[in-house]
Specification:
The protein is of the alpha/beta class. The protein has helices at residues 32-41, 81-87, 103-119, 144-153, 169-186, 200-213, and strands spanning 3-5, 18-25, 53-62, 65-74, 93-99, 126-132, 157-160. Helices cover 36% and strands 23% of the residues. The relative contact order is 0.17. It binds guanosine-5'-triphosphate.
């Protein structure tokens, strides 16, 4: 599992941040890792296939609240399907990604939605459908209207993006964050980080001392 820390620290947040688990789902090569990489590093690369799952964190400040998004980037390859299933347990939000130039990936995103529907109550999870690779307009196989219609029929958020051209990527994550905050404020802030972050060095030192005393 790779760990990449986002550097955008909120400047004025005096309270503990809200912490949300966000999973990226969708078939292989639709651009899940590229969307995360664009958000966190504002860059684009030919990324190697994700093996198992990668993990990123991104701090955000939105409407005066601090948020920490724990972003789980799952592997789209079929052989990892059952593992990915484990990763979306406990998720607060899911980003369902398809490639607008690949109809099959749109159908796969719809199948992911069915799996989420089986696992979660509608109010338990925020879901956004993301049609990525809008720069491939000439090879488009899924129209904007088809994406929008599916999202509306299931009450999902919806956006089209291009990780390559940095088109609406931040907007997609902000839409998710805003909806998470809205729901959180409705139910009294249960996702605020409750304990201060663990100092891993201190913990390791404490363990070592204990071990040496044995
Ligand atoms: N043209 C174009 N290519 C993109 C875009 N986003 C990603 N790609 C390319 O698509 C390929 C797959 O991107 P990834 O981000 O690795 O896709 P993924 O969904 O994480 O793939 P898995 O890890 O296999 O699940 C790479 O070659 C990317 O450079 C985009 O917006 N436009």
């Amino acid at each position: 599992m790779a760990l990449v820390e986002g550097n955008t620290q909120p400047e004025s947040a005096s309270q503990q941040p809200y912490v949300f688990k966000v999973v990226l789902l969708g078939s292989s090569s639709v651009g899940k890792s590229s969307l995360a990489f664009r958000l966190i590093k504002n860059d684009f690369k030919d990324i190697l296939p994700t093996l198992g799952c990668a993990f990123f964190t991104q701090m955000m400040e939105l409407d005066g609240s601090a948020l920490k998004l724990e972003i789980w980037d799952t592997a789209g390859q079929e052989k990892y399907h059952s593992v990915c299933h484990l990763y979306f347990r406990g998720a607060n939000a899911a980003i369902l990604v398809y490639d607008i130039a690949d109809k099959d990936s749109f159908h796969r995103a719809q199948n992911w939605w069915k799996e989420l529907e089986n696992e979660f109550q509608p109010e338990e999870i925020v879901v956004i459908l993301v049609g990525n690779k809008t720069d491939l307009e000439d090879s488009r196989e899924v129209t904007l209207e088809e994406g929008k219609a599916f999202a509306e029929s299931k009450k999902l958020l919806f956006v089209e993006t291009s990780a390559k051209l940095n088109y609406q990527v931040t907007e997609a994550f902000i839409a998710v964050a805003r909806e998470l905050l809205r729901r959180e404020e409705q139910n009294g802030g249960q996702s605020r980080q409750r304990s201060p972050p663990v100092d891993l060095k201190e913990t390791a030192r404490a363990r070592k001392v204990k071990c040496c005393q044995d």
